UniProtKB/TrEMBL annotation:
GO function terms (MF aspect): ubiquitin binding
Any single GO CC term annotated in Swiss-Prot or TrEMBL for this entry: ESCRT I complex
Keyword Protein transport tagged: yes
Domain SB: 266-334
Keywords: Coiled coil, Endosome, Protein transport, Transport
UEV domain span: 14-159
Family: Belongs to the ubiquitin-conjugating enzyme family. UEV subfamily.
One Pfam entry name: UEV
SUPFAM superfamilies (UniProt xref): Endosomal sorting complex assembly domain (SSF140111), UBC-like (SSF54495)
PANTHER family: TUMOR SUSCEPTIBILITY GENE 101 PROTEIN-RELATED, UBIQUITIN-CONJUGATING ENZYME_RWD-LIKE PROTEIN
Annotated protein name in UniProt: (wild Malaysian banana) hypothetical protein
Classification of source organism: Eukaryota, Viridiplantae, Streptophyta, Embryophyta, Tracheophyta
Cellular compartment(s): Endosome
Major localisation: other
Amino acid sequence: MVSSSSIRFIEAALEATGDRALSYVHHGLKWLIRDDLLSLFDDFRTLSPGSDTLTHNDGTTVHLLYAHGVLPVSSSLPPVLLTIWLHQAYPFVAPIVYVFPATGEQMVVHDHPFIAPSGSAVLPYLQTWQYPKSNLSDLARNLVKVFRICHPYGFIPTSPGRTDASLASKREAIDRLVAALHYDVKRFQAQIEEDMKQLCSRQATLRERTDMIDRALGDLELERLRSKEAAKQMVDNADVLSNWLQSHGTESCLYMDEVEGFEAADETDRCLLDNEAAAQAIDDAVEVLGEALAAGSVTFANYIKQVRCLAREQFFHRAMVAKIQRSNESSSERAIC
């Protein structure tokens, strides 16, 4: 039985005018608001009526009725302190439910599947509110069932039990599914964040190795240019020596073989020298890569990849050298005959 003081308070609030008038837009349905509140207080005696100003998220303020108090959940779980505000467009718009900490030790848990960070309840029942199928008493009963599934203060029932899927109502099945999906999403998000951290770490490592390989390749290119410059200098010195030998008459014949060893006589010999030099340069490059692998500057996979490429290129250079040498030998044999 609802107390007479609660009845008088609700009736007086609904009949108030002026500054104390409520903000309900459907004046002809005030009797429905009264009956729904009385039915709620009759079913849940721990709740009591009140009226105050509510500020919506868009900044608008309204004067509304509310039901405040502790909502019993079960014998093994503590009650939940909450306030149920009746929206100014009630009953066509769902009420607004806020959950509060009961004590300093009973705080609302973070990442609750049915409670937003602001403390407002986010229930499938509220999201699918439809008058006249929905009412305050059924909302409170749904809150009890939801809080048994996931208590706002993080308590776990001593004997939770299991609900037979064939006996569970459609509403309860939806609530349990929403809770399960919420925790699955949180678990997946945590796993995704951990995977992202590992991938970022691997990416940083790969970038470091890429920079090391780029520096090694840069050093090899610099060494190639230095070798090319040294070869050019040797050719120039050979030209100077050849000119000097030629200017000294018959003595130049004694050193002609050495001069020909430094300077290519024709395009074929130049091609032979270039390919032989390229093949020997690749040997040097492979040796440098081996030193980088031993020092840990490059990975084994990158080392094998570079060596394979260099070996393939060296094969063609060696083949060209062999071909030219065979051609020169055939020419020499024909000349002797």
